[in-house]
Amino acid sequence: MTPRAGVYRLLVPAYLWSIVVTFTSSGLLLLLSAILGRIEIIPAGYFWEILVLGMVMSLVSVNSMLFLGQEKVKIFNILSLIQIVLLFLLLLGSLFILNTRNVMTYYWSILISVLLVFVISGIQLFPAIKKVPLTGMKKLMREVLRFGTYVQFANIFQQLNYRLSYYFVDFFLGRAVLGVFNVGVQLSEGLWLIPRSIGMVQLTRISNEMDTRYAIRISLTMVKISWIITLFVLILLLLIPASFFQLIFGAEFSEIKTVIMALGTGIVTLSISIILSQLFSGINKPFHNTISSAIGLVFTIGLGFILIPRWGIIGAGITSSISYTIATIYQFIIFSRMAKLSFRDLLLKKSEITLLISELRKFFMKNESRK
User: Fold this and answer.
1) DSSP string covering 329-361, please?
2) Comparing C-alpha atoms, which of 89, 87, 68, 90 is closest to residue 77?
């Protein structure tokens, strides 16, 4: 919404929204932990630490999205890099200089790194905060709440799709199996770095162009390239022998490759979903993402109770794969109707590769000119 509303008119409501949601969601998670009993969503004694960290990270996210809305991707990337590097250095110092090795070491390291990024991003954002007439704020707030509510529920449902299997595995199979499953999932989800990077550029371009036909055309190209690259990298990952994972992580992690294979279909299909989600957000139709994530969540819950107790860690991977695939199918049906796709449209053309390269070059040249 940045290109349409501007930084000044969005910053305060976005901050307020983040604070309200952080307090509300933290309270609900604490209540859920108390109800579930055995499964601690928020570990006992860490409520305020998690609330504060969640709030600061939310505010940093607001600043980051405003940079992307202005197509200032270089600043966005630099801030992300600063946070990671600072976290790494603080952890090294805590472990090897101060010799502190506990959960609070990690907490203070990540909180300090995120706080610094919040301060730097605020300083960088300040020049863009130009006072403009606040006429039409009531209409804007309605739009923010409508858009934000759809996005918030889509994020909640999708996060549950990503992580609910963890709780099923922990409940039915135990913490040791969960560790193996977690490593397999993290390695597989690393493949989404490519579509997420493409999607970030896609969303900023679509939001600033505000041309639905252009958005559909560039998104179709990105969908094709995204799933092809993801599939190729997945094949390379599967070619790595299981003995290599055992060498890196230990003998008890022999089933990591099995997890990756079970997740494979879902990982590839969700690379398509990532692009389509950015399209629907960019053209102001985020409700499709909410519906898609809700559909996926239904399958995650239903299949989780059936497949995980029966097939164990493989069942967990298949559950996630089916959930991701069904959610993506819904999005693709909506997209194909919007674009009026034929079978030939699904084939990757040389002209589309040229178009994508041209758009990326135009995007980054525009970014350079704003420095």
Assistant:
1) HHHHHHHHHHHT--GGGGS--HHHHHHHHHHHH
2) 68
